[in-house]
Automatic annotation (TrEMBL):
Pathway, per record: Cofactor biosynthesis; tetrahydrofolate biosynthesis; 2-amino-4-hydroxy-6-hydroxymethyl-7,8-dihydropteridine diphosphate from 7,8-dihydroneopterin triphosphate: step 3/4
GO cellular component: cytoplasm
Nucleotidyltransferase among keywords: no
Protein's UniProt name: dihydroneopterin aldolase
Annotated source species: Caballeronia concitans
Ranges of residues in domain Dihydroneopterin aldolase/epimerase: 26-136
Pfam family, one: FolB
Length: 156
C-alpha cells in the first residue's frame, strides 16, 4: 500500500503536475509610470517617475500551441492594470507598492510566480536608480479545488 498524500488526494494529479511543470515566462521590461511614492515631504505630493520590470511565470502556456491570447498572460492588460494601480495606490514604500503589484498579477492574471524590479530612477543625483526586487509565488491554498483540506497538517 502506498503512502497517503493528502494534497494529491484532495486536489488530484493536476495539482502536482501543474506545480512541478516548467514555467513559461512572460515579461515586461522597463515599464515607466508616474506615481506619488516616498517618505520624504518632497515626495508626498508630486508624482515622480518609477521604472519596473516584471517576470511573470505560469506553467506551460497553452498559447504556444493554440496561438490565442486568452491562453497566456496578456502583458497589455497587465500594463494597463499597473498604470491604474500607480494612479490609485496609497502606499509610501516601494516595497509595499511592489507587493501590491505582485499580488495583483497573481490574483487577477493567474500568474503562478512573479519577480518584480521596481525603482526610482531620479531619487538621487549621484546614482542611476534605487529600488527593490521582490519575488512571489502563488500559494497552494490559492489553487481552486479542495486544496484547503489538511492545511496546517502537511509540510509545505
Amino acid at each position: 500500500m502506498g503512502r497517503f498524500d493528502p494534497i494529491r488526494e484532495a486536489v488530484g494529479d493536476a495539482f502536482t503536475e501543474e506545480h512541478n511543470a516548467p514555467m513559461d515566462i512572460v515579461y515586461i521590461e522597463g515599464l515607466t509610470g508616474q506615481t506619488v511614492i516616498g517618505i520624504d515631504k518632497s515626495e508626498l505630493h508630486d508624482a515622480q517617475t518609477v521604472r519596473m520590470s516584471l517576470m511573470i511565470g505560469t506553467p506551460s502556456l497553452r498559447a504556444c500551441t493554440t496561438d490565442h491570447i486568452d491562453d497566456t498572460i496578456n502583458y497589455a492588460a497587465v500594463r494597463e492594470a499597473i498604470h491604474a494601480l500607480l494612479a490609485s495606490h496609497r502606499v509610501q514604500l516601494l516595497e509595499a507598492l511592489a507587493e501590491r503589484i505582485a499580488q495583483m498579477v497573481i490574483a487577477e492574471f493567474g500568474a503562478h510566480w512573479v519577480k518584480i524590479t521596481l525603482a526610482k530612477p531620479a531619487k538621487f543625483d549621484d546614482v542611476d536608480a534605487v529600488g527593490v526586487v521582490i519575488e512571489r509565488r502563488r500559494s497552494w491554498s490559492a489553487t481552486p479545488g479542495l486544496g484547503w483540506i489538511g492545511r496546517g497538517y502537511v509540510p509545505q
